[in-house]
Each structure stands twice: as structure tokens, then as C-alpha cells.
Structure to design on (215 residues):
């Protein structure tokens, strides 16, 4: 079978999905505003690595089990919502820094790197919408006759493309021309992200208890 037509379809669908606002975007924006470029890039790398998690269970069939077992899917959704709530409460408590503190925020980026990476990985890894997206992609878009090696290539591409997209977003958000403004006024964006994360968590919980993925 031809590799390129299927790959181009996957790349297009993935681009639309990764560019749409969601928990991943909120996390990268929060770390870019609060801690700077380094932390935002690490969060982006965490998101990209989590894509491989979705790809792996889609390839080995575990994803189907998650989708067809209502309580397991609901547990995943609740865990994701709780983690978003945890991140939201921290963002909502952001305070306006003093001038000296604003300068020090740049130095906080380094110790925040591991935490930022973990936040990106967990946010994407627990996202039930990402689970459904990859299940649908491997069940509908990718042919059953596609060689396993091709599927691995597709998965690696989506992981790298996702990380690259959010890394690019990190560089845009931390451009030197706006860095000073973000350091001084970034706490407003932090609080806004807190509200957005709360809304996303509420949406996950409502969809979890309002829909049955297995029936």
C-alpha cells in the first residue's frame, strides 16, 4: 500500500487536533508566562512524550479495553479532572510580584523544568479526549492492512510534531519583546489559566458522568 497518502491524512488530522485549545495549551501557556521559555519547553517535551503513551496502548490494544470498560474510562477521566483542579488551584493563587521578584522569576525556570515536564506528561497522558482521538485515528483513519512499522512511524511523527508545535508556541510566548510585560503582569494570565483549567476539569467530570463510553 502507499505510505504517503495515509501519512498526509494523519498529519492533517493531527495538526488540527494539536492546534486546538485544550489542557495542553493551557499548561504550556501557564509555564511560559510564569516561569519562562525553559520551563515551557520542558512542558512541551512532556506532552510530546505522553503522545507515545497513547500510541503504544493503541497499537497493543489496551486502548480498546479502556474505551469499552465504562468504569475504567470514567476513572481515567476523574483522575484527569482532579489533576487539572490541582493545577488550577495553584494558578488561581498567583500574586502580583514586586519588581525584584519579577526579575527572580526568570531564575526560577531552571528548578521548574522537571516539574514542568511532569505536568505536561501527566496532563496529556491522563487526557481522555486524547485517548479517544488516538483510538479513533488507529481504528478509522489508519487501515488495518497498514504494516506495523508504518504505524510506529506515524506514532513517532505525532509525538515529535506535538512537541515541536508546543516548543514553537513556547518561543512565541516568551519573545524578548513581551518578556518584561509577562514577568510583571503574568499573574493575570496565570489566574486566567486557573479559570480555564477549572472549566476543563468541570467539562471532563460532566462528560464522564453524563456519557457512557461503553454503551
Amino acid at each position: 500500500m502507499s505510505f504517503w497518502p495515509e501519512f498526509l491524512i494523519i498529519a492533517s488530522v493531527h495538526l488540527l487536533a494539536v492546534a486546538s485549545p485544550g489542557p495542553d495549551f493551557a499548561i504550556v501557556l501557564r509555564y511560559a508566562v510564569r516561569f519562562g521559555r525553559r520551563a515551557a519547553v520542558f512542558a512541551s517535551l512532556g506532552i510530546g512524550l505522553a503522545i507515545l503513551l497513547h500510541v503504544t496502548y493503541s497499537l497493543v490494544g489496551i486502548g480498546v479495553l479502556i474505551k469499552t470498560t465504562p468504569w475504567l474510562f470514567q476513572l481515567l477521566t476523574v483522575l484527569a479532572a482532579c489533576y487539572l483542579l490541582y493545577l488550577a488551584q495553584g494558578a488561581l493563587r498567583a500574586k502580583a510580584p514586586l519588581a525584584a521578584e519579577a526579575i527572580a522569576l526568570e531564575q526560577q525556570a531552571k528548578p521548574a523544568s522537571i516539574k514542568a515536564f511532569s505536568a505536561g506528561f501527566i496532563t496529556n497522558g491522563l487526557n481522555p479526549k486524547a485517548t479517544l482521538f488516538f483510538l479513533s485515528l488507529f481504528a478509522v483513519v489508519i487501515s488495518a492492512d497498514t504494516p506495523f512499522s508504518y504505524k510506529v512511524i506515524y506514532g513517532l511523527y505525532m509525538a515529535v510534531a506535538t512537541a515541536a508545535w508546543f516548543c514553537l508556541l513556547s518561543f512565541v510566548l516568551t519573545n524578548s519583546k513581551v518578556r518584561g510585560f509577562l514577568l510583571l503582569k503574568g499573574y493575570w494570565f496565570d489566574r486566567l489559566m486557573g479559570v480555564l483549567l477549572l472549566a476543563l476539569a468541570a467539562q471532563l467530570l460532566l462528560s464522564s458522568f453524563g456519557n457512557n463510553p461503553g454503551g
